[in-house]
C-alpha cells in the first residue's frame, strides 16, 4: 500500500498509557544486563552522539506517556526503538509489535556505492542501472541528489538508523551485500526498509541532468489479518494485544539452500550451508593464494553432509581446507569476513586455533554486576556444585547444569588462566567507569562441564576445539605475514572476537572495503564488539527457572525471598511478551549485550566496543568487484603483497598494525 496511507493509519492508533508504562518498567529491568550502560554516558563522537543514559531515556519516554505528550502508540514505540538504536550496538535492541506490521520500503530504489578504480572516491548509482549496464550498451549516471539534498549526506543521515558502532559500517548497510547474497541472508538495511517514515516519494537527481522518482510503499504481510481493522483502535486491538492467531499458510519445512553460492566462483570446499568456503586464485600472479570466505559463524546443516552438529562440520571443513592448500603449495591466505555478523562463539576460537594452534586465545570478558545477575549466578553455581543433588535427583541436576552454562564461575578461568577461588573473587563487584563489573573471565576449553559455550552438548555431538581434550594440535598453516583479513566493517559479535584474536595475538593485518566516500582511515570491525548476547526471553525464562529450582532445593520460603528481588520482577514480566514483534522461535524480540570484550593487558578495562582500531588499508568496491568477488580478492592480494594501492589517507593510523 502507499507509504503515506500506512503512516496516516499508524498515527491514528491510540496511546496505551497503562500498557506502555508497564512495558517500559520491564525494559528497564532487562536493560540492567546491558554491559555498556556507564560508557554510553561518555561522549565518544565516532561511536554515538552526545551522552546516552539508557535508563534515564526510558524514564523520559515514560514521563512523556504520563504527561500525554504522545499523539499515537506508533510514536511511543518508535521512540523506544530509536533509543535502543542510538546505542549503535546490534546486541542491544527492542522490536515492538506495531513497527513490524507495515514497514516502509523503497521498492526498485536500491543504490550502490562504486569507485572507478578501487581507490578513487566512489559515486552512488541505482543498482538497476548498474545491472542493466552489464547487458546493454548503457553508461549509468551517478546520483547527485536525493530529495533535493546532497546524495551522500542524505544517505549518511539515513544510516543513523543502522545499529552498527561506526559511521562507515552504518553507511555500508545501505547497500546490497555480496556476502549476504551468497548465502541468501536477508539483511535489508535502513535504506531499503525501515520503520521510520521518510516521505511518500524518493526523488533522485543524476549527474547527467535527469531525474527519477520512486514511490515509497508499506509492506503489508499476509500473516497479518486486517479483516476487522477499521480505525486506530481496531488496529491496536488486532495487532497490539499479543500474538495473532496465524492465518492459514502452507508451512515451509526442510528448506535447504542449493549447493552453489550466489554470485561467487565455485569453491573447492564448502560447509553445507555456505558459512565457510574455500577458493583458489589460479590467475597468473595469484597461483600461491588461497581464500577462506566466512560470511557467517552461524552455520546450519544442509545438503551434502552426514554431520549433525554444524560446529563439527565446520571444524572438519577447516581441517580439510588447510590440508588441501598445503598439498597444493599455497603460501598466502586471504580471510574474507565480509558480511559476517557473528554466530556460534566457539567457532571464533576454533578457527583461530587452526590458524595459530600454539597460541592460547585470550578472549577476556566481563559481566555488568547488578542484583539480578548476582543472585542468578551465585545460586545457579551453588546448585551446580551440589553433589548430593546430583546423586539424588540427576534429572533436576542435569537441568541445572544446562541452565548454569558459563554463568557457573567454577567452570571458567580468570584473566591469568587460573580457576577462581570463590564466587566473591569472581563476582566482586569491581568498579570501572563508575559502574560495577565482575572480574575478567576466560573460557576453559579443556573443561566440558560449563567451561565454554559448546560444553555439555552430549556424547554424540560433543564439540571439542582443536588443540584441547582429545582434539589434536595441527601444524601452523601460515606465518602471520602471509595472512590478510578482508572486511567490510559489518563484522561483529563472534566475528569481532575472531578478528580481535587475529589482530591482537596473531598480529594479522586487515583490509577494509567501502564506507563513506572520504579519504580517511576506517575501522575493520564496525559491528558490536560485545562478546555475548542474551535475548530477553531467555533472561525471563532463566529467572523463572531459578525460582523453580530454588523452591525444589531450598524450599518455598527461600524462593519467596528471591521472588521479592529483581529475579522475581523479571520472572513476572508480561507486557513485553504482549508488545514484542515475533520472529521464528523468539517470543520476545529484544536483546542485551551481556559481556564486554576486553583487550589483553588493558588495566583500564575499556570495552573493545569503545576502542578505535583502524584497518591497515582501505579500498572501495568497483563494478567489476561487485560482479565478481575474485576481483576484490585480487585487490586485497595486490595491496598486501604486491604493488596495489590503498585509498589515500587510509594507511598509517596510530592504531593500525
Automatic annotation (TrEMBL):
A GO MF term: serine-type peptidase activity
Domain of life from the UniProt record: Eukaryota
Pfam families reported in the protein's UniProt record: PDZ_CPAF_rel, Peptidase_S41
Gene3D superfamilies documented for this protein: 2-enoyl-CoA Hydratase, Chain A, domain 1
Ranges of residues in domain CPAF-like PDZ: 107-225
Annotated ranges, domain Tail specific protease: 288-508
Any single GO BP term: proteolysis
PANTHER family, sorted: PEPTIDASE S41 FAMILY PROTEIN, RHODANESE DOMAIN-CONTAINING PROTEIN
Protein name: Tail specific protease domain-containing protein
Organism (species): Lojkania enalia
